[in-house]
Write a structure and sequence with these properties.
Low-confidence stretches of chain A: 478-482
Largest sheet of chain A: 7 strands, antiparallel
Number of helices of chain B: 12
CATH architecture of the largest domain in chain A: 2-Layer Sandwich
CATH topology of the largest domain in chain A: Uridine Diphospho-n-acetylenolpyruvylglucosamine Reductase, domain 3
Number of helices of chain A: 19
Helix content of chain B: 25-40%
Structural class of chain B: alpha+beta
Structural class of chain A: alpha+beta
CATH class of the largest domain in chain A: Alpha Beta
Shape of chain B: globular
Strand order of the largest sheet of chain B: 3-4-8-6-7
Mean pLDDT of chain A: 94
Oligomer: heterodimer
Strand content of chain B: 25-35%
Low-confidence stretches of chain B: none
Number of domains of chain A: 5
Distance between the termini of chain A: 17 Å
Strand order of the largest sheet of chain A: 15-12-14-13-17-18-16
Shape of chain A: globular
Radius of gyration of chain B: 21 Å
Largest interface: A-B, 93 and 84 residues
Largest sheet of chain B: 5 strands, antiparallel
Helix content of chain A: 25-40%
């Protein structure tokens, strides 16, 4: 993946830049020794690495503002970083950038159960948001797989989703307000404990802007009361087509499960070998979860299993207790770990219209054969968000490139059938050069115009989201001759 | 002008030499002066997949046409867009584009989300005549910036919507309303907070002080609604209770709330204030309104004020925003209809408008 050549005029001023950062931050908050900056050389897209010029770990909005002011004045690119769990390379540094990590900012500032919100510093991890309110029986809904580690700052930057979006929406639907620092150091407050914008919905465009518009230091998030209970049912089918038709029928019937997860045979096998969850040996498997009181759950699961029976399931297993529910989820939740044990893998994130599910799975199977790389599919079927996992061997020369080419073909297919490149991971560098498959020049121009307003010098995370050739004229860092 | 295609619209905007007014169904304002672009020919449902909960239609498509098509499949627009006609006394047909452009949302906003939360994709023509698309027709999409949200609620300031894609939801089997009586404003908002913080999935929470009715809506399967109505009632042993279990009557009540009908006959200007729910009663007290009621659990205050009166000082120290929805005919100059933003936020909004509409072709929309 190509990255801009580092700006030599920035590299040559490293000492001065670090000194100015040290002047506005406590000594331990500025990291510039290569042995330590290495910790920031990549995120969860580990195929690409580059130690930054320096990394800073401010502890407050004021310190973030001071850092950005310095970098703005000195023309230094800044790459914001949450917990570094991005699968898209959203936090990948360049050699001439300062990594701005929010990890030290993890305080809860206010919890308000009466008005159902929590205000916090954005370095806090996703799961610990729920952790802060669960004693009162509340939770924070978006639940990306990385929720144990990922920070709210990154969730906002990527508009993260999770398994329960079908009912509760993604980050943007649960974000009420932010405190954000612009690249020039100015601090803006957007939204708050009230709903919707009085003017333009700036909060809406900030969420999902991949750290390119500003650094969000504090956030107001909607919290919800826990449902009385939840229970999954597991269903095995003889083909992907049948499972896909069953998903569509469930949705059409007016039942709105909180999650519908789909796994295909390669994925089922790997998970079974890894987690021994007792999954049936079949072509496709659905896990459908509903919520409510016991009788309400019984009623909904009754309707769902009745629909499933019309599709001749090879297996239909309702959880009778918490232990059984845990076992049903066990395999699905360990899918990524299971894959990692067999092989290196690349996790894709395209979204397709639910109706295209069978056709797309068939095509992916054909492409997998053509490339000679196995693909396992696990995804959120209710909303069409696919996660094809391409298995490859990173030690085999050329295999990563082959894997990336197959990945790009699969994502182009998603766009072709009316879907998109990324449902919840973000564009980062990973899908940057595919943006032209989904968007025309005028579409990209309109998006970049928004960045022009927030960050006229294009210093914030400049080499992400937009193809380098498309953003070249705007990026302030001149491409120096190597 | 009534362009029949995106290309015609683009050409018309490119050719424009003075500001244009954009008109959908014309239900929210009086006919504008000067040149007008009507979206009435950019119509039709282009895609509807009930199994994928997705609908795509031309921006000029009448809302009623969309709602009829959805009802046939037992689905609906869950954000419950308000019909402005009863309050404003206007004619015409609300359009899908108008609903999206003004982020028009009703009582269910508190639970299910606003129009902006259900908008999956847009196509629009900006002030330079460029045809732009953003988002798509799938439920999860983080590909590039979310201009869909930026356009939702932009009230035509950034461009003319030509097509919108929406997430739709099934209509629940039935619904019912628990009406609590004998509560003052403060008590009602506390009760609504309690209900919305319960596990019973309350999908509407409004308080009508004139009728002394604090209304809590439950929707779902029959058995579920019966169960939750009872469970909810048990939370309020002190309050008077009048459960409304007739779905038709319950629906009629929420239509009234949605359309702000309690203020339709009130004199003066009608304002809509979005605040932190527990601030609702204090805001109402400061306003000393001739008539008011609450939606969104107290977070949406509808108030009828003396013509020309500015409600914004009442928000001082509390936050939130106020929008003028109906100005009484004639009378003194009005404060700006849209809530002025503080700097440097206002500079960002101005900057975005200047990028999307460099010639100020849609500048009139700011006052809309």
């Amino acid at each position: 993946m190509e990255m801009p050549t580092p700006d030599r005029s920035v590299l040559s001023r490293k000492e001065e830049i670090v000194a100015r950062l040290r002047a506005v931050l406590p000594a331990e908050a500025v990291i510039d020794e290569l042995s330590e900056t290495r910790a920031y050389e990549c995120d969860a897209l580990t195929a690409y690495r580059c130690p930054p010029l320096a990394a800073v770990l401010p502890a407050s909005t004021e310190e973030v503002s001071a850092v950005l002011k310095v970098c703005h004045e000195m023309g230094v690119p800044v790459v914001p970083r949450g917990s570094g769990t991005s699968l898209a390379g959203g936090a990948l540094p360049t050699a001439d950038c300062v990594i701005l990590g929010v990890a030290r900012m993890n305080e809860v500032l206010e919890t308000d159960y009466e008005n159902r919100f929590i205000r916090l510093q954005t370095g806090r991890t996703n799961l610990s948001v729920t952790g802060a309110v669960e004693a009162e029986d509340f939770f924070y809904a978006p639940d990306p797989s990385s929720q144990l580690a990922c920070a709210i700052a990154g969730n906002i930057a990527m508009n993260s989703g999770g398994a329960h979006c079908l009912k509760y929406g993604v980050t943007t639907n649960n974000l009420l307000g932010v405190t954000m620092v612009l690249m020039d150091g100015s601090v803006v407050e957007i939204g708050g404990a009230h709903l919707d914008a009085g003017g333009l919905d700036l909060l809406g465009v900030i969420c999902g802007s991949e750290g390119q518009l500003g650094v969000v230091t504090e956030a107001t998030l909607r919290i919800l009361r826990n449902p009385e209970g939840a229970r999954p049912v597991l269903m095995g089918f003889a083909s992907n087509e049948v499972a896909g038709a069953c998903v569509s029928d469930i949705i059409k019937a007016g039942v709105l499960p909180v999650a519908i997860e789909f796994m295909d045979r390669p994925c089922i096998r790997a998970c079974e070998a890894f987690a021994k969850a007792g999954y049936p040996d079949c072509e496709a498997l659905l896990i459908v979860e509903v919520e409510g009181s016991e009788p309400e759950i019984d009623h909904q699961l009754g309707l769902i299993t009745e629909i499933a029976r019309r599709h001749d399931p090879v297996e239909l297993r309702e959880a009778r207790d918490a232990e059984e529910a845990g076992r049903i989820w066990l395999g699905r939740k360990s899918a990524f770990g299971a894959m990692g044990q067999i092989n290196d893998y690349m996790c894709l994130d395209g979204t397709i219209p639910v109706s295209e599910l069978p056709r797309v799975l068939t095509r992916i199977g054909e492409m997998s054969k053509d490339y000679g790389l196995e693909v396992a599919n696990v995804f959120h079927a209710g909303d069409g968000n696919m996660h094809p996992l391409i298995l490859f061997n990173a030690n085999e020369p050329g295999e990563l490139e082959k894997c990336e080419a197959l990945g790009a073909d699969i994502l182009r297919l998603c766009v072709e059938v009316g879907g998109c490149l990324t449902g919840e991971h973000g564009v980062g560098i990973e899908k940057r050069d595919l943006m032209t498959a989904q968007y025309d020049p005028a579409d990209l121009e309109a998006q970049m115009a928004v960045k022009d307003v927030f960050d006229p010098a294009w210093l914030l995370n400049p080499a992400k989201v937009f193809p380098l050739a498309v953003s070249e004229a705007r990026r302030s860092v001149p491409i120096a001759a190597e | 002008m009534r362009p029949a295609s995106e290309e015609e619209l683009s050409a018309a905007i490119r050719a424009a030499t003075e500001p244009l007014a954009v008109r959908g169904g014309g239900t929210r304002s009086a006919p504008p002066e000067g040149p007008v672009i009507e979206t009435g020919a950019l119509t039709g449902i282009r895609l509807y997949e009930p199994g994928a909960l997705t609908l795509v239609a031309g921006a000029g498509t009448p809302l009623s046409e969309v709602e009829t098509a959805l009802a046939r499949e037992g689905q609906r627009l869950a954000f419950e867009p308000m019909d402005h006609r009863p309050l404003l006394g206007t004619k015409g047909e609300p359009t899908l584009g108008g609903v999206a452009a003004a982020n028009v949302s009703g009582p269910r906003r508190i639970q299910a989300g606003a129009a902006r939360d259900f908008l999956l994709g847009v196509r629009f023509v900006d002030g330079a005549g460029q045809i732009v698309k953003n988002g798509g027709r799938v439920m999860k999409n983080v590909t590039g910036y979310d201009l869909v949200k930026l356009l939702a609620g932009s009230r035509g300031r950034l461009g003319v919507l030509t097509e919108v894609a929406l997430k739709v939801l099934p209509v629940p089997e039935t619904s019912a309303t628990l009406v609590l009586t004998g509560l003052d404003d403060q008590g009602a908002v506390a009760a609504m907070s309690r209900a919305l913080g319960s596990p019973y999935e309350v999908s509407g929470a409004a308080h009508l002080p004139d009728r002394g009715a604090c209304c809590l809506r439950i929707e779902g399967f029959e058995s579920s609604v019966a169960y939750r109505l009872k469970a909810l009632a048990a939370l309020f042993p002190e309050a008077g209770q009048e459960p409304q279990t007739d779905p038709e009557a319950s629906a009629a009540l929420w239509r009234e709330i949605r359309d702000a009908q309690p203020l339709a006959a009130a004199e003066g200007d009608v304002w809509r204030l979005s605040v932190k729910p527990s601030d609702g009663p204090e805001v109402a007290r400061r306003l000393g309104a001739k008539a008011h009621f609450y939606d969104w659990g107290g977070g949406l205050v509808w108030a009828a004020l003396r013509a020309g009166e500015d409600p914004r000082p009442a928000l001082s120290g509390l936050g939130g925003h106020a929008t003028l929805v109906r100005a009484a005919p004639g009378g003194p100059a009005r404060p700006p209809a849209l809530h002025p933003e503080p700097e440097p936020l206002a500079a960002l909004s101005r900057g975005i408008a200047a990028k999307f509409d460099p010639r100020g072709i849609f500048a009139q929309a700011e006052a809309a």
